[in-house]
Amino acid sequence: MEKLFDNVHVGNLNLSNRIGMAPMTRSRALADGTPSDLAIDYYGQRSSVGLIISEGTQPSDDGQGYPNTPGIYTKTHIDGWKKITSKVHSEGGKLFIQLMHVGRVAHPDNTPHHRQPVAPSAIAPNAEIFTAEGMKEIPTPRALLENEIPDIINEFRVAAKAAIEAGADGVEIHGANGYLIQQFLSENANHRQDDYGGSIENRSRFAIEVAKAVVDEIGAERTGIRFSPQGTLNGIEEGESNIEMYRYLITELNKLKLAYLHVMNFGNEPFMKEIRELWSQALLMNRPGRPLEQLSLDVDKELTDVVTVGTWLISNPDFVERIKKKSSLTEPDRNTMYAGGAAGYIDYPSMS
């Protein structure tokens, strides 16, 4: 585990350790998307990780999928995030805000304008989503017109600018987990016949153009991007060309010299090694279901520079210190993960 506590450079940051906080939706924001004051303590408590990547944060009304998720596109949002970044920095931490446009993984009941979700194509994910009235079937989205796509790209640009104004150290573009960017990448979610569908190059175009827009606005050293190659969350099937597509996509994005690439590792070790070879900047890796004793495995093998941790950090705000001292971990209460309020959010104890 010793290598986890080495410093590492990511973008223009020198991180104090190689443990990152993975982005996790917690549904504690106010109704207008402003982070609640509870989030100040939540992120501040976890500032000992090398890098905090915030919960998915919508860049627009259309980008919201779940109830009470934060936004980063109004002055009120910016003011709310300023309190969080100030707290994290005062505790010696670093924070990137994750920009998450959910695309079709949404319900009108959960958005401020109550409109039909948008997506590359009018294809429903055949899944349910939580609303204030309980679980509901996700409706069929509206296919974006080609002349609307630049507007969506600009939403990412504006949100990235707002994140920096709010004091964030950078942003992570969410291209994983079946949300809008991965919908463009996926053969079963993208049936477009224009420049954004069909070939690998066309299906990758949206992700690349979003990244370029964000880089143009805030700089490559402040921009990360996340992918989940071969992930099937939210009805995604990327098709037989999956690996070839990510080879192309990562090669093209590598030219932008982003701060980092954040990948979910589902066990395809040869492909993860190939990604390591294709990518020249910092690599972050999240391995779902990894046992605690293997936490440092990917760092030890030099497969990644930073390992990101999710659920363990919900119930162990002092996770880094516990790992250093080989102390036991607190199990999370899954009934309070999205329940709202302080319980299961900021009331988990640190070691005495």
UniProtKB/TrEMBL annotation:
Domain NADH:flavin oxidoreductase/NADH oxidase N-terminal: residue ranges: 3-326
The entry's keywords: Oxidoreductase, Plasmid
Highest rank taxon of the organism: Bacteria
InterPro entries registered for this protein in UniProt: Aldolase_TIM, OxRdtase_FMN_N, Oye-like
Record-annotated membrane-spanning stretches: none
Required cofactor(s): FMN
GO cellular component terms, A-Z: cytosol
Record-level Gene Ontology MF annotations: FMN binding; oxidoreductase activity, acting on the CH-CH group of donors, NAD or NADP as acceptor
Family: Belongs to the NADH:flavin oxidoreductase/NADH oxidase family.
Protein name as it appears in the record: Alkene reductase
Lineage: Bacteria, Bacillati, Bacillota, Bacilli, Bacillales
